[in-house]
């Protein structure tokens, strides 16, 4: 006699139970995976800053000063001969460009004359240089976030796939200085001091990266380990900057001196920042979204704070809860202040 075996399948209830269990496991694992990714991005960002710090120290070993925040008065002889508070259309290259040989980017560095005008330079080499995306200047959490760049109330599209921003920039009196101008983005801005940058005081700042000149180690009387060099600036607030000024930056250099609503604005805000305490205080990684925070501040997409490079090459994660006075003190190189932890 032949018997036919009966294969028993899953019932509908059993299938629903299995699907529910799988869903619960995914729900439990997903936050953990996201947290791991977030931590990995923060660590990679810190490593980017560490490499920038090493490049800064190697630059100092070669020239006996740290790099200038950006070069200016490029048409004078010698260049930077008369650094002033006045708008300068002859802006040179920034600190990111100056340290390229120490970031394994020497061929790129040699492709342009570092003592030439940067932004108003129409040579093919200068145009290619300005558009070169360097991943070491981009935080993994913020690498391709900026889709638009605001200037004087007008939106200009950017190429988000190549981390380029396209801008149009007006100078004193409203005259057009740069039109449909492409620049490689950066996630990091230098520390000019504790004062705002809107009055062209970047040549007089008490921080580490100044307009027109480098700072020597001897000038850092507060100690390198107590002085900020470079910090993060996220593009997530690009649409929420003061008026229509963007809270983004580039590694290439500053923009020519311009104005905004009749007031002169320093070109340094695209490459430098400050630790000044505004009248309506907010701290690194501020949650403000009302559009009135300062474009020269430091922000990140990391939860709870911002990565910063100190003068001794160390990288620290400064939390949003840092005391306001401590925050101000960390931005100066020779203020004589003491900090009680942060």
Continuous helix count: 5
Rg computed from alpha carbons, rounded to a whole number of angstroms: 24 Å
The share of residues in extended strands comes to: 15-25%
Poorly predicted tracts of residues: 145-162, 238-246, 259-263, 287-293
Largest sheet: 5 strands, mixed
Overall mean pLDDT: 74
Q: What is the number of independent domains?
A: 1
Quick structural summary:
The protein is of the alpha+beta class and 342 residues long. The chain has helices at 12-63, 95-98, 106-110, 124-130, 324-330, and strands spanning 148-151, 154-157, 164-170, 176-186, 188-193, 228-232, 249-250, 258-260, 263-265, 272-274, 305-310, 315-319.
Q: Can you describe this structure?
A:
This protein is of the alpha+beta class. The chain has one domain. The chain has 5 helices and 12 strands. It has helices spanning 12-63, 95-98, 106-110, 124-130, 324-330, and strands at residues 148-151, 154-157, 164-170, 176-186, 188-193, 228-232, 249-250, 258-260, 263-265, 272-274, 305-310, 315-319. Strands 10-5-6-11-12 form a 5-stranded mixed β-sheet. Strands 3-4-7 form a 3-stranded antiparallel β-sheet, with no helix packed on it. It is globular.
């Amino acid at each position: 006699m032949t018997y036919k075996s009966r294969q028993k399948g899953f019932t509908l209830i059993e299938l629903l139970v299995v699907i529910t269990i799988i869903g619960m496991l995914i729900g439990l694992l997903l936050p953990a995976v996201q947290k791991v990714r977030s931590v990995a991005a923060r660590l990679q960002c810190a490593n980017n800053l560490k490499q920038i710090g090493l490049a800064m120290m190697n630059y100092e070993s070669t020239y006996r000063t740290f790099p200038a925040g950006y070069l200016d008065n490029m048409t004078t002889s010698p260049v930077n001969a008369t650094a002033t508070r006045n708008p300068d259309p002859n802006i040179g290259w920034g600190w990111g460009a100056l340290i390229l040989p120490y970031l394994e980017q020497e061929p790129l560095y040699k492709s342009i004359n570092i003592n030439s005008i940067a932004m108003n330079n129409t040579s093919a080499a200068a145009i290619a240089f300005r558009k070169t995306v360097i991943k070491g200047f981009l935080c993994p959490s913020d690498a391709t976030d900026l889709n638009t760049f605001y200037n004087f109330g007008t939106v200009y599209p950017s190429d988000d796939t190549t981390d380029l921003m396209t801008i149009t920039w007006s100078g004193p009196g409203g005259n057009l200085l740069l039109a449909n101008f492409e620049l490689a983005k950066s996630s990091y801005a230098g520390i000019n001091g504790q004062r705002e940058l809107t009055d062209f005081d970047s040549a007089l700042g008490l921080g580490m990266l100044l307009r027109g000149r480098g700072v020597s180690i001897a000038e850092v009387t507060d100690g390198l380990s107590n002085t900020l060099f470079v910090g993060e600036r996220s593009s997530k607030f690009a649409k929420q900057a003061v008026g229509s000024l963007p809270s983004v930056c580039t590694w290439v250099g500053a923009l020519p001196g311009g104005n905004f609503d009749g007031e002169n604005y320093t070109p340094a805000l695209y490459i430098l920042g400050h630790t000044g305490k505004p009248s309506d205080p907010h701290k690194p990684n501020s949650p403000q979204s009302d559009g009135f925070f300062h474009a020269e501040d430091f922000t990140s997409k990391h939860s709870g704070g911002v990565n910063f490079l100190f003068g001794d090459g160390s990288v620290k994660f400064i939390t949003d809860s840092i005391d306001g006075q401590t925050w101000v003190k960390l931005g100066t190189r020779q203020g004589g202040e003491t900090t009680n932890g942060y």
